[in-house]
Every structure is written in structure tokens, then in C-alpha cells.
Amino acid sequence: MRMRFCVLALFATASLHALPASAAESRYTNLGNTSCKLDQEASRQIKPHEDFKPLLYRCSGFAEREVSVTYHGLMVRTTLARKDGKSLDVLTPYDAGPRIEWRGERTPTAAILRLSARDEDGRPASALAVVKLAPDQDCLVAVIDVKANRNANELAREAADAAPSTSCNAPRLTGAAGPTGLEIMGLNKR
User: Of 1, 55, 105, 130, whose CB is crowded by the most CB atoms within 10 A?
Assistant: First the structure.
């Protein structure tokens, strides 16, 4: 009986060590027309750029972050706003979305945004922007060119999962460089 108990205890202990560490989870919010509402009053308050009428859409946020997308001339700004009034703008020349992937174990520590541009042939191209979400400061930490990296989603998730220990000094181009990633990086240098 005692031997059987020791063997069971040994198996139970071994199985506890075999359990994987808690993995980051993904949750999503949409940035499309059905999930975002045009804020006409806020849109009127934005100074027009040349002949372009600015349009500000308020979207579903997540975990203490409010999200808005502003179409302003030839620039699109996705804003992640915190409850304390601080915000981070991520710029792209064409469009953002169709959704944001929020990464973290219990609460998100990073967000992944798909930013669209046009390649040199005028065809749609995109990059993934990884944003660190921290109590004191949100910042862009990585940009991944989708066309240049077959595993762009995996690279973005790896960068997002590493975001809590990543410095906010300057974003980096992750993976192979491509023209869309370089363009997005250039627009978001601070």
C-alpha cells in the first residue's frame, strides 16, 4: 500500500512538471464598419488635409484601451487610448484592420495591428505592427512585413509575447525587410 502511494505521488509530481507554462492567449476586436461607429462631431473638429474630409471611427476597445481609427488625407491613424488620457498613434498610408489581436495571459500586454499600404505596383500589401501595452507607457516595438515573411503572424505573436520585457526606445523591423515594413517603420519613427 505504501509503495503504491509513493508511485502515485511520483507520477502526480512528474505530471505537474510536464504541464506547459501558461501560454499567452489571443483575443480579438474588429476594426470594420460593423464594429466601428463614425463620430461625426469629432470628425468635424479635425482640420481637413487638402481636399480630404477627415473621418474618425470609434471602435470596440479591450482591457482599459479605447480604439479609434482616423482617415485623414492619405494617412490612417489607429489610436489606442488609455483611461489615464495617454494614447499611442500608429500610422499607415492606406488602412488598418480588419481586427486587433490582443495578446497576454490574463490581461493583454501587447496588441497586433494589421496595417495596409500599396506596394510599388499599386497592389495591396501589409505589415503587422506590435504594440507593447504597459501600465506606464504604450509603444510600438516591432513591425513585420507580411509579404517578405511567410511566417509573419508567428513572428508578430513572438514579438508580442516578448513585449513586456522589450524596451520602448525604438521599434525594430522583425524578420526579413520588405518595402511595406520599411514604409510603416518610417511613418512611425518618433
Answer: 130
Rounded to the nearest 10°, the torsion over CA 161, 187, 148, 176 is -60
Residue type, 188: N
Return per-residue pLDDT of the chain as tens, 190 residues. 444 433 334 334 343 344 344 578 899 999 876 789 999 999 888 888 767 789 999 998 888 899 999 998 889 999 999 988 899 999 999 999 899 999 998 899 999 999 999 888 888 999 999 999 998 889 999 999 999 999 999 999 999 999 999 999 889 999 999 999 999 999 998 7
Say what the pTM is: 0.84
Q: Which residue is associated with the grid cell 470628425?
A: 43
Strands of the sheet with 65-72, listed across from one edge: 37-38, 55-62, 65-72, 75-82, 87-92
| Cβ count near 2 (within 10 Å) | 6
Q: Are 159 and 150 in contact (CB under 8 A)?
A: no
**Rounded to the nearest 5°, which phi and psi values hold at 162?**
-90, -5
DSSP string, 46-68: SPPBTTBPPEEEEEEEETTEEEE
Non-local (6+) Cβ contacts of 40 within 8 A are none
